[in-house]
Amino acid sequence: MNTSNQPSFSTYFRVLNFIGEVISNDKEFISEFRYLYYKENEPVSNPHASYKVYIDRHLGLNKIHSITGPRKDEFLLITAFYPSILPALEQSINKLVIQKLDTYCLVESGFITYDGLGLLIVGGYETGRNLLIKTLVERGCIYYGDAISILDMPRYEAIHFPKSIAVESLSNKFTKFRGRNPAFRERNRTSSYYVLPAERAKTIKACHRIDFVFFPKKVSGSPALTYVTPADALMRLMESTFDRRQNSEKQFDYLAGLVRKVQSFCISIKGLKKTTDLIFQQLRAD
Amino acid sequence: MCPDSNYNRFMQSPRVTEGISYQELDGELVIFDRTKHKVFNLNRIASLIFFFCDGEHTSKDILSELMQIFKDVEPAVLEEDLEKTLKILKKNGIVS
Q1: Cα torsion through A169, A175, A180, A185, rounded to 10
Q2: Residue B26 and residue A230: Cβ atoms within 8 Å?
Q3: Domain presence at residue A194
């Protein structure tokens, strides 16, 4: 792989005070990245992390794409599967954000607002969280984040995570040349990204009070909204935090304070329209 | 079990392990083990036993306290509950 004479394109992104740079030989990839992460207006002189992404779009047996970084010469991913590149980069950025923003409480969740009320939607992507958030945004909610919520300790507020909604799915990918051989089958996490209407996306550093916590799960029966006790909500929230030993006790105390202040519900997802109707009914009741 | 080991067991003073935090929420107790990053939810009787694990109360003392609180429960039932709860708390590293 010779990348020395390749033209390079770059972009910057920022999550609170964490700043990163992405350089690539591929202009289209940079556009895709900007589509996912909101672009910084001004170039940054000393980013905390720098990723180099090499894309080979020529057809052939040697087709290869790679991501290097965040430290120089550290290879994160080499793949023949182009769709793997952006989700892999997103995962790596998320890991770095978790490490760097160690004075905040980070929860695997999304955050939206509706009519002045803040909704924290907690759980992994397999719970149906992202599709639920996407539907709620399409039905009028304001979007703050979909994968990691940055909670401001000691204030009970969520801070905007400047990234588009990624709707993820697992699929088996094959190459044209190796598809018949199961040994080359790749279990691949793919993502499609949802363009937010401008009036629904907040600006960097926007924050909002948390009023409700929802724990979604997919079910085969009817959609339902069930009250969750503060103790149960705390258990579930702690399971969705990231294991960062240095402030885990502080996070535990903070989340206990949060569940005392908010109402928590388990939301069984079956049909996004009916499920979101239930959520809106609950919000209007308050 | 020989009478001596039964006596020893009752004279032990269980103590909450270092690295354990807890929060009481609407009568329920949530325990957080920050060294293992694990959370536990204790029911009412387990919560009471947890609070008596201060390194000063022996198991016998804890049983006496429980008998005072749950006067309508058979002492043998309370003793069994205490034994089971302490076993679970010890197994999960919450008390030693």
Answers
A1: -40
A2: yes
A3: no
A109 part of a folded domain:
yes
Prediction ipTM score: 0.82
Count interface pairs A-B at CB distance under 8 A. Answer: 46
Integer Cα distance of A155 and A257 in angstroms: 10
Question: Cβ distance A21 to A49 under 8 Å?
Answer: yes
Between the CA of residue B40 and those of A248, B4, B92, what are the distances in Å?
15, 33, 9
Nearest residue on chain B to A230, alpha-carbon basis: B25
Query: B30 and chain A: CB distance < 8 Å anywhere?
Result: yes
Residues A151 and A45 reside in one and the same domain: no
What is the per-residue pLDDT across B28-74, written as a single tens digit (0 to 9) for each?
999 999 888 899 999 989 999 999 999 999 999 999 999 999 999 99
pTM of the model: 0.84
Query: Are the beta carbons of A100 and A47 closer than 8 angstroms?
Result: no
**Which residue range(s) make up the domain with A93?**
9-100
